[in-house]
Amino acid sequence: MQKKFITNLGFLLVLNFLIKPFYILGIDAEIINRVGAETYGVYFTLFNFSFLFNIVLDLGINNYSTTTLAKSEHLLPKFFSRLLSLKVLLLGIYVLFTLLMGLVWGYSNYEIKLLLLLVLNQGIVALIMYLRSNLSGVQLFFKDSIVSVLDRFLMIFICSVLLWGGFINKPFEIEWFIYAQTVSYCITLLLALFWVWKEAAFIKLKFDNIFSLAILKQSLPYALLVLLMSFYYRSDSVMLQKMLEDGSKQAGYYAQAYRFFEAGNMVAYLFAVLLLPIFSKMIKLNQSLVGIVDISFKIVFSGAIILSVMCFQFGEEILAWRYEDISSQSSALFSVLMFCFVCVSTTYIFGTLLTAYGDLKTLNILALSAVVINICLNLLFIPKWQALGSAIASLITQIIVSVSQIIICKNKFKFKTSFSTIAQFTGFIFGVFLIAYCTNLYFLNWTVALVFFALLSFTFALSIRMIPLRRMIQVIKYE
Questions:
Q1: How many structural domains does the chain have?
Q2: Which DSSP helix (H) or strand (E) runs through 345?
Q3: Most buried among 252, 373, 412, 465, using CB within 10 Å?
Q4: Neighbour-count burial for 418-430, b at 16+ CB within 10 Å, e otherwise
Q5: pTM for the full predicted model
């Protein structure tokens, strides 16, 4: 299992490093510059608003499907047509419910128009994610990897033509960006559907009332977890827009920093995608989890620390390089959000392990606590510090969640923590900060300092085995 994880992770990382960072920092950042922080802030707020009710699209079916198929792959033909039919029904309910909530929330006609486009896109994405849960559940990681980046690859192509092709003489409109998403998602959906169809011998949609109710009952704990996580991940910008007079602009500044967070998050999320079915199968076979947890956590933690410290040290220069309109708080906001990334990356290991184990009660209690803490902190901090206050609220919430998950997993799975391990992690953190300080001190050009920081930090991680390269090579060779 460790060999399968390492080889597929390598393939996933190569694909995602080639495509997703360019999409986030190239295409998405350029669109923010073209339409302005305020207009993009409206889009970003509506996008997150549509995410708040995303649970209606899923109701925990994706996680349930992945964990169930990982343990019993032969169930795919039996489940697929029935579950896909249920997903289509939920899509219709989600669109109507979200638009209704948008009207209740007081959005304008223009905002409702954008929200309609966004919820339709969310519906297509939900179908893609369900199909991906089938591919990963039956261990077809190569095909799942292709599907995971295809939509972004298509977005890069379409938006590049719109932004720099010279075919359009008027200013870029945010609606074009949404339409480009729709086209990209539809093409990706068709490919994913074709691949799962071949595996499941799918013939036609078949809605089964009894089967659907049984599945929803079993997946309800997953659904509650997704709902709660959506609220404490996505409510920040929605609250910003409503609580401040210049809420849309503040949400736009938040989005600028959040896009860098999201670029890193897309890569860290790959660990959860791979580990959920692998953890599920290993738990069923009663195999030791120590090795794979150790390798995966060290890799994701090392990358998260290096990226976060880099953004802390060079945040002002990075934002000024990529964006035209930034606020006086942007650098601090950026740093805080990127330290959130360290916590979120940790949950992709330990939260995924608890999900695979089926301990949804603990996860839901933790997520509900996080929602309450996050909303209370936002209400307290947003009036004082605007977008920065929202980022601080998010950081405090994520620290509580990640530390709690580590402690729970340590106790539940009897993981041992030695003094040498604590010293290794602590030394790595201090070492990376020291490298950042020294490179910034000795190199006048910030881009040169950034490159040297990244190279030296990666080398340092290898030298103290935070990235256990030799062990990974041995696993690939001999397992």
A1: 1
A2: helix 330-357
A3: 252
A4: eeeeeeebeebee
A5: 0.73
